[in-house]
From TrEMBL:
It comes from Alsobacter metallidurans. It comes from the Bacteria. The keyword Thylakoid does not apply. This is ABC transporter ATP-binding protein. Coiled coil: none annotated.
Length: 254
């Protein structure tokens, strides 16, 4: 690991430098470098096989890089940690398919996701339960499911299940949320609502969103990174990236 401490590194929540991952000689990540700031939202786009999922796997400790630095919060070396410890640090990941507890209510899904000891209603623990209820209500407010709190998760629409799962991540109070293709299968209206939800979450958390839907990416209103063959092809504002000749050539089409 480099011993130089740059302002870019110290001010970052996530710092990837020269990260490479090979599968049987094929480079899924090829000296990938990227810096995400505290409280930043970043959209990651790129063609199939560009390395987006592999990048998320490296950040969450599912895949070990062959080379490069992956640092959290300016100093924590994620390449030396296992998945559970990385989650414990405050990195939450949402996969593409919602994985809520279908036979539980919306309320209980959020409660089950919360950190900390559970208590069975003893008066000694009453104060703690009230704090938990307040936190739960706050999460339900953020994800727009307050009026659906008593419904079974199984009865929610696909979009509502995605929001519930985002709420379950929020309940763990992560510093960084990684969200994989959240709007796949959503209606246009749900897609718009999801962009607004993530934008509101990004006011208090760093968020990295992998997505193919360019209307949605535009609605996020954040910096965009386009990956191709395991490295950064283009990075910047959506207008600049989406009109970049190479991005058009390899991803968006003419
Ligand atoms: N466990 C693995 N073993 C072998 N090859 C893999 C493995 N995981 C990923 N790859 C390969 O690495 C490359 C990058 O895959 P990755 O899933 O990271 O791309 P992606 O950008 O997420 O694509 P998509 O948009 O299709 O999800 C692909 O060519 C893929 O086939």
């Amino acid at each position: 690991m480099s011993s130089v401490t740059s302002p870019e590194l110290t001010q970052s929540i996530l710092y990837l430098d020269g990260v490479s991952v090979s599968f049987d000689g094929f480079k899924a990540l090829n000296s990938l470098s990227m810096v995400i700031g505290h409280g930043e939202m970043r959209a990651i786009i790129g063609p199939n096989g560009a390395g987006k999922t592999t990048m998320m796997d490296v950040i969450t400790g599912k895949t070990r890089p062959d080379d490069g630095d992956v640092l959290f919060d300016g100093s924590v070396d994620l390449t030396r940690m296992d998945e559970a410890s990385i989650a414990e640090l405050g990195i939450g990941r949402k996969f593409q398919k919602p994985t809520v507890f279908e036979s539980h209510t919306v309320d209980d899904n959020i409660l089950l996701a919360m950190k900390g000891p559970r208590s069975a209603g003893s008066s000694l623990f009453g104060w703690r339960n009230r704090v938990r209820d307040d936190q739960k209500d706050q999460v339900l407010e953020t994800i727009g499911l307050k009026d659906h709190r008593k419904r079974l998760a199984a009865d929610l629409s696909h979009g509502q299940k995605q929001w519930l799962e985002i709420g379950m991540l929020l309940a763990q109070d992560p510093k960084l949320l990684l969200v994989d293709e959240p709007v796949a299968g959503m209606t246009d209206h749900e897609t718009e609502q999801t962009a607004a939800l993530l934008a509101s979450i990004a006011k208090t958390h760093a968020v990295v969103v992998v997505e193919h839907d360019m209307h949605f990416v535009r609605a996020l209103g954040c910096k965009v990174t386009c990956l191709h063959e395991g490295s950064v092809l283009a990075e910047g504002a959506i207008d600049a990236v989406s009109t970049n000749d190479r991005v058009v050539e390899v991803y968006l089409g003419r």
